Amino acid sequence: MLQACGLGRRKPGSDQWLIHGICMAVRPGDRIALGGPSGSGKTVLLRALCLLDPIDEGSIEWKGEPIRGDALPAYRKEVLYVHQRPALLEGNVEQNLGYPFSLRAHRGREFDRERIVALLDALGRDAAFLRKSNRNLSGGEAQIVALLRAIQLDPTVLLLDEATTSLDPATVAAAERLLDRWWSEAPGERAIILISHNPEQAGRFADRRLHMSAGGTVSER
Amino acid sequence: MDKPYIELSYWQVGLAALLILVNGGISLMLRLDIERRLLVAGFRTVAQLLLVGLVLQWVFRVGRWYIILGLLAAMTVVAGVSAVRRVHVRYPGIWLSSLISIWASSWLMGALAVFVIVPVEPWYSPQYAIPLLGMILGNTLSGISLGLDRLGGELGGSRPQVEALLALGATRWEAARGPLQQAVRTGMIPIINSMMVAGVVSLPGMMTGQLLAGVDPIEAVKYQIIIMFLIASGTALGTVGVVLLSYKRLFNDDHQFLYQLVREHP
């Protein structure tokens, strides 16, 4: 489904490789945990996979086709990246969740409030949370909103960059249940790649474990 | 024939120049320690203005179109460079973006003035072309630099939001629109403000000049109105131009935000 071959990205303005020669395939239904020391290029790799940054070497193919130019927004809708630090827009939670549906890539779809309320319920929060302003959210709450904002769009591949790092243990468990539930809605169709520094989480969550070493190479464990 | 204004002798000018001593006195008394800067500023005022006067006198006397065009081009380049100098960010191509925007917008407005609105015969008549373009350039310059400065700040500060939108499937335009709008708005605020208070708080410079030269107040006002609208449109076009050129430079065809190209400039 998603195939990266010889993928490399240099540090901008220098010859140093951040990631180099990475080959990997993501198949439907994959639950991949991506581990490795800090600075080994995990974030760079996820950003490269959704083509948020230019790549200097190699290729990425989506369903057998290279992705270029104006195909990018529609591709990123399928291969959706959630930042390590959640970036919310001005406004309350509901406005943040509804905003993506105003984008051209999601035209024809509408914000499904009922679905969000059900998901919030699973996280132990009620609908009043939707009215909370982005300025009054804790770091963990903001991360929950960013996660909900992503999964409600039903991407095919979800790229999570330490998306549960700033959450307390109870919310981490809830977020994992949320991801489980979302993944099981369409078994064998959706894939998740999760960067995690927590081996237990990786063991719990993933069925494939990839390890990045310094120098930006990736190996299956 | 009597001139409609009082001609000044160099003695009279010198008398006014002595007023710099007032500033010097204040600086000494309050120990502001700016006497040296005052002295330099005073000398620069005199020297620069005399130099410009001599150049203009020569240009007016010769009156050849290519010399006037050359002078206008030089003024435009200086304005384009000054606009970037006041900006606190840099990215590759910023100088060219500024130059193209200021050139296209001010010359379009200048051409509109001398060919259509006024119209001047011949079109390059320095008495009109030089001050008209000068005023348009001066204002477009500040619009461009304010717009660029704001754009740099916005794109730096909102990089997470811009990237989050791109990651959610936004096109580069959808992701950048907020910062771009802010930048254009900021660039246009000063001219809107001066249009709001025109004639109420202070008399605009050109109108004051014409009044001193003995022109009928209503005639002076007509010119001032024309120039205000030329300046407003020039500023709008220049600001939009530089913001769009920057956008094209910082967001590539693959809808990626090339944030690493933007650098702080103290």
UniProtKB/TrEMBL annotation, chain B:
This is Iron export ABC transporter permease subunit FetB. InterPro entries: UPF0014_fam. It holds the Pfam family UPF0014. Keywords: Membrane, Transmembrane, Transmembrane helix. Belongs to the UPF0014 family. The gene is fetB. Signal peptide: none annotated. It is a multi-pass membrane protein. The keyword Membrane applies. GO terms for cellular component: plasma membrane. It is found in: Membrane. The chain crosses the membrane at residues 12-31, 38-59, 65-84, 96-117, 129-148, 191-213, 225-247.
